[in-house]
Amino acid sequence: MKKKTLKLAAIAFVLACALPMFFAGSDTSDTEAGPISTGRGTPEALEANYKAWRVQYVHNGADRNMGLSLSAAKGLSTEVSAAYGEVKLNWVDGIVTVEVNNLQKTEVWDFWLIDNSASSSFLPDESDTMLRVGSLSNDGKVAKLEANLGPAAFENFEPDLAVVTRAGKSPVEERLLVGTTTLFHRLYRSEQKGQLGVLADAQPVSRPARELSLFEKIVEAVMPTAEAQIGPIPNPTTPLEVLITAGRQSFLNDTFAGNGRTCATCHREENNMTVDPEFISTLPIQDPLFVAETVPALAANFENPLLMRKLGLILENVDGLDDLPNKFVMRGVPHTLALIPNTLNPAVIDGTTIPPNERTGWSGDGAPIVSGGGPALAGTLRAFIIGAITQHYPKTLARQVGSDFIMPTVAQLDALEAFQKSTGRQADIKLAGPGALSFKNPTVSLGRDIFNNPGAGFPPFVNNPNVAAGRCLFCHFNAGAGDLVEAVLIGGSSPDPALATNVNANANFDTGVEAQPAQPADLLVPPNQNPPDGGFGTTPGPGGFGNGTFNTPVLVEAADTGPFFHNNSIETIEGAVAFYNSNSFNNSPIGAALPGGIRLEATEIVAVAAFLRVINSLENIRSSVDLENRAKNAVNFSQAQELLKLSIAELDDAIEVLDCGGLHPEAQLKLLQAAALDAVALVTSNKTIRNAIINQAIALKNSAKSEMIH
């Protein structure tokens, strides 16, 4: 049963059953309009990510050794520069150390720290507290500064920005280089004060909700839209919930005075935080995704409407904004689920540089905000948000802050970081050893074994001679984005996947995706400009700007987030697995490094794909149950409805992923029944009755899960 058929069946079921439930009255009804929820985000996921970060932060010295990267950045810097540097802050003793490369020796440069005011934008203004730390002294090729401000310096001063200016200029007038702190730095500071998540700059915003008709509620349950029904921020039990809710609201709705786009224009919450050609085809021309077709100032060099509509490709100026007609790449929209440590932490053995400090974007080198050739602005998710606004939100291609868009406040950046780091799984699944998933379908079990087999000729890893060697675990340990090879070679981990530990780094590789013949973007008629994508970095070469490598995505969510690879060149999960069996991969730098390459038969490719489909469906079920449990505890009806809509979307994905692989029809039927119950619950205003229906849906999901795993 295909996706549209499932939706029609669910609508029919709801129309038959919903009206009696909807009109059932009780003194436990909670129908008043109310707040949005945290949606796909959870405080538990955010806290788990924060605690994993905190372990490494404390290991590195914590607030005695906080590092910030400095670089020139479009939208933040006032001029182009190839200079870059590093700041070390000792918050405890008040010591500041700065080193900057490539500064003009003929000029004197000052270093500043800035504590943004709660109401101002991220850019410095007169309302901010600004501290001139001192002047940099040239020492050969490096300009340096060390200043002791005293132990009390940071007691009531929390730096948000680090800025290098010419001597005599303030950061309001001039900014050559800029560096930023992150949400987790700020969470750590709040935790030290005994108030985890209580941030000084937090200013949640509320907007009125629009009431839907009964029929709209029914249709929205089965075919949800990207529009969030925004209400006031709730009074939840933890500050992290407030932060995530504010971040979700900003993610879905804040345009930053630009062309109408928001984060959710491309990262649709109801479509796995991404967009694809099928989804794009359902949108009206008025959708801000299509501003290149409706806004004359953005008609050229902003998007390629044909490649967007046909292949889901977005134009990105990842290598700089200095030559818009020629310096761009076309990339798919990566989902933002499960931004756990091994998705973001950079590897050290893959030939890339640090910074970037987090592996964001397809090439792992941060957002398109570099201006002048230095490293990206720390390359963090926070910097990526700033870069995304600069790239995708402007009213004109001049991209002038103030007239084309505005910068977010510190509070908005904190909230956006919080929401994005709170979505999806808290950790990777386990595929070997005690507690590992055990599959009932023999084809799926075979797929897992192929996935986990390192093959021969690669000591200290031990080959399983009984199955083909997929070698997937090297880069996608436990179907995540962790690099097992680095963990073994320099992290001291066991090579046995059942015993491996500390697999926390995300590596970049040249896998030959760019070398594939007959790529869809090159076959469209009329021909479209589709320049080569050089991946990481900005060094020019025959393959574009960069070293040819791209970062490693997580795989648990892969089956329902296609098309695949950075250029959307493969449509199906089976095709994506088959790519690693191709000459393009086996002749690539990383493919050639594997003794014998990867050689799978067609049936083995199907088995690996079936395995990926089932683990994706299991994650859909996990997420759906979590959403339902939160809906049961919602503070009011509208919040429960929002969570139930997302639950239904997850179930729709779970069914489609299994159906397209011909897997577990009994589980599909139970999931369809659960989705129908969720749809009934969505229009049931009586909380007691609604929760009873939700409990039935959860039971069906657990039963469907038991069809797939032991």
Report on this structure.
It is built from 22 helices and 15 strands. The protein has a 5-stranded antiparallel β-sheet, with no helix packed on it. Helix content is 35%, strand content 10%. A hairpin with a 4-residue loop joins strand 2 and strand 3. About 8% of the residues have low confidence. Helix 16 crosses helix 19. Among the domains are: 143 residues, Four Helix Bundle (Hemerythrin (Met), subunit A), CATH 1.20.120; 147 residues, Immunoglobulin-like; 187 residues, no CATH class. The protein is globular and about 70 Å long. The protein is α+β, with helices and mostly antiparallel strands and 710 residues long.
Describe the structure concisely.
The protein has helices at 3-22, 43-59, 183-192, 214-222, 239-253, 263-266, 277-280, 291-294, 305-311, 341-344, 381-392, 410-420, 442-451, 484-489, 520-523, 573-579, 583-586, 589-592, 602-632, 637-660, 665-682, 687-708; strands spanning 66-71, 84-90, 95-101, 109-115, 129-135, 137-139, 142-148, 161-166, 177-180, 314-316, 329-331, 508-509, 540-541, 544-545, 550-551.
Which terms summarize this structure?
Immunoglobulin-like, 15 strands, globular, alpha+beta, four-stranded antiparallel β-sheet, five-stranded antiparallel β-sheet, 710 residues, Four Helix Bundle (Hemerythrin (Met), subunit A), single chain
How would you write the strand order of the largest sheet? 1-2-3-7-6
| Class per helix and strand makeup | alpha+beta
Low-confidence blocks of residues:
18-35, 204-217, 219-235, 371-376
N→C terminal distance: 25 Å
Number of helices: 22
